Amino acid sequence: MECEKVQDRFSSLLEGDLNPAEEKIVREHLASCSGCRKELDRFEKTMHWLHSVEEVEVPDGFVSGIYRKMEEGKSQAIHGEKAGWRWLGFPVSMKLPIQAVAMVAVIFLVIYLTKWTPLETFHLKEVGRKTASLPPKKEVEKEGALKGRAVPQTTFETHRREEIGQLKATVPEEKKMEVASAPKGMEEGGRIEKSSVAKEKAVFAANPPQEIVLKISDHERVISQIQELVKKFGGEIETTEGNVLFASLPITSFSEFEKGMDRLSSSQKEDKVVLQKGSGESLRVLPGAKRGGVEEKDKESETRLKDMEGHIIVRILLLQE
Amino acid sequence: METSPKIQKEVIEGCKAGDEKAFTEIVLHCQKKVFNIAYRMLGNMEEAKDLAQEVFISVFESIKGLREEVKFDAWLTQVTLNHCRNRWKYLKRRHYFNSDSLDEPVEAGDRTVPRPLYDPSGNPETLYEKKVIQQVIQRGLLSLRQDQRELIVLRDLQGFSYEEMGKILGLPEGTIKSKLHRARVDLKEALEKFPH
User: Which of A77, A285, B42, B51 has the lowest tally of Cβ within 10 angstroms?
Assistant: First the structure.
């Protein structure tokens, strides 16, 4: 047997684990090999030293130290439970759904904060703006009421005649009404439903109202020409209030209509200005109107948003010289 | 190597029920074994004391999970070894063993004994020599790998049987025997390398 194999059996030899045949072979090798004998001697001494190691006595206060640590641990555990460690004791069947719901809530919150907030802010601004510009809103309401009753029953001409006669008288009255009814209007403005506002925004976004200003000399003739033009392009006159006309036109034919208005304007030999606005809240009177010295009650009138898909609302201002 | 009698089943059941008296009985019965394993594994009295106390606290907290009371001794040893492994890693990360963390050399009257020399021909007859040998062995143990140290501590210092070691360490007896022999040879070589 080789020395290495003999030395690998030293532990078994000393513990008496070798079978008699193996032990005989090992002892025969040791008898003839001084190197292995020396190694065995060293190994035996090491084992002797190991077995001579005595157990160490447990230090004093060992048991009391355990109870002290347990007390400290209890107080920490109480604090830990209060701090939310109780959650760790919940079964997984409860924890998982709660965590899932919480995750979804967080995702929605993030999306809301990052994506929807600008729209909401816009909406709030819109509401605020509308509340601030109450007179136009009241105008819209009044228009609606007028349209429901008077407009279908009266022809354009009679309405015009009445209006020409009452023009100067009605303007101060309207102003008074607006001032008196402002608080009510503010309340209403505050109660604007989100859906209607959203629709309104969508309409404006899709088809921003157009404004065309014409300086005219013959009011009656121009209005009839405009009516014809509108009908020609598949639109209709929505409402007529003195020098303001609201026409609904298909978007596709708007450019053609605009050209027609151009021709009409050139035939009148007057200036024509086209304004496009994001919303109808700040319709301004053109300088040309002031130059003409014509009183413009239409300054306060608001665009009626009865726009449908594919149509555009055009406000036509007629400024008489 | 003498082995302590097994702890009674009723005491373990009492401890499972949260009886502190039963727990104290277990501590008193097993403290020496747990403390000595910890001391031989770590080589420091204070660390060993602290660790052994934590072992018993763990036992009190987790004994309900012990299904077979007859396996209490093996279970307790496993808990102790697990604590020792974790503490060893913890101390090693903090370079604890690079410093002079071992307990102080044996004091002999008014002189400090230098680090003992390895002398296989000597016989540890006197108390002084025994203490010196204990220190030499402790240094040799700490120079071994942790798994080798566990084998020697369990078998040569605590007197566990190969069967018990197989259950505690989850290894076949043959594997334990061969690994233990390798550990003993490595210890012998470590002792020989100590400066003379």
Answer: A77
Residues from chain A that touch B152, judged by Cβ atoms under 8 A, are: 50
B78 C-beta neighbours (distance < 10 Å), count: 15
Q: Are residues B92 and B121 in the same domain?
A: no
Is A63 part of the contact surface with chain B (CB cutoff 8 Å)? yes
> Distance between CA atoms of B194 and A311, rounded to whole angstroms?
101
CA-CA distance, B169 to A275, in Å (whole number)? 90
B105 lies in a domain? no
Last residue of a domain, one of B63, B98, B133: B98
Any idea what the CATH number is for the domain that residue B150 is in? 1.10.10.10
Minimal-distance CA residue of chain B relative to A70: B57
Task: Tell which of B50, B66, B98 closes a domain.
Answer: B98
Helices and strands in chain B, H and E counts: 8, 2
Q: Does A54 touch chain B (CB under 8 A)?
A: yes
Q: Is B184 in contact with A17 (Cβ distance < 8 A)?
A: no
- pLDDT profile of chain A (321 residues), mean per 10: 89 92 93 93 93 91 92 72 60 82 92 70 54 45 41 42 44 41 41 46 53 78 84 82 81 82 65 42 38 41 49 80 65
Domain coverage including residue B50: 1-98
Q: Are residues B91 and B124 in the same domain?
A: no
Q: Give A 219-258 residues with CB within 8 A of chain B.
A: none
Q: Same structural domain for residues B71 and B148? A: no
Q: Give alpha helix (H) positions in A53-133.
A: 62-82, 92-111, 117-132
Q: Is the Cβ pair B137, A58 closer than 8 Å?
A: no
Gap between the Cα atoms of A269 and A179, Å rounded: 39
Which ipTM was obtained for this model?
Answer: 0.82
Nearest to A53 among B60, B157, B191 (CB): B157
Could you tell me if B58 lies within 8 Å of chain A, comparing CB atoms? no
